[in-house]
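Worked example 4.2. Below are the chains of a multi-component assembly; read each line carefully before continuing.
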Amino acid sequence: AQSVSQHNHHVILSEAASLELGCNYSYGGTVNLFWYVQYPGQHLQLLLKYFSGDPLVKGIKGFEAEFIKSKFSFNLRKPSVQWSDTAEYFCAVNADANQAGTALIFGKGTTLSVSS
Amino acid sequence: ETGVTQSPTHLIKTRGQQVTLRCSSQSGHNTVSWYQQALGQGPQFIFQYYREEENGRGNFPPRFSGLQFPNYSSELNVNALELDDSALYLCASSSTSGRRYEQFFGPGTRLTVL
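Applying the procedure described above to all two chains together yields the following structure tokens:
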């Protein structure tokens, strides 16, 4: 069965610090990869996605992620975080062989707290 | 463009009762997926509906059932509620054309089972 592992449960940073959130998945075939963000009191929003091509993908609000196939990883990065980045971040995977077609498998999430 | 909407926002039920949650998909989307998000966890896939039929199911018992209507809206029904069913229930819509793997989420329904 597919699974997604997010290494950091809670990350605390000061404004302007750099961010890297780890995500590893278990599936040997073709995958589509996503990072979703959930701001306090808001619904899940798509931050960025990888389907194919350039393994370095850029998303909204200055976030980027790198797909490393050999490491089954899709880590999220941001060079300089802001207080408004405080949120819950979820990595998600969809595998083409998934019986449910477009069903997403999510990690447990990482809470990011940014102090000003 | 209207986003995904869900109703009700909050719901309190007691053990053994039945509940129906509703979802309207984003305009132009024909596929609806339902997820359960327990406190402190990531969303877990319940099932997906396409063309009014179940198109895949996660590891949830049969007392979780659903419907999709011709206008692509959907319902999630849970029978014989248990305490562990307390969670945020998320609906996501997507399209089978174009970016079929992009799912757009609604705000969720917070279900509390007492």
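Take a moment to check your reading of the output against the notes. Chain A touches chain B at residues 4, 32, 36, 42-46, 49, 51, 90, 92, 94, 98-109 (CB under 8 Å). The first strand of chain A starts at residue 3 and ends at 6.
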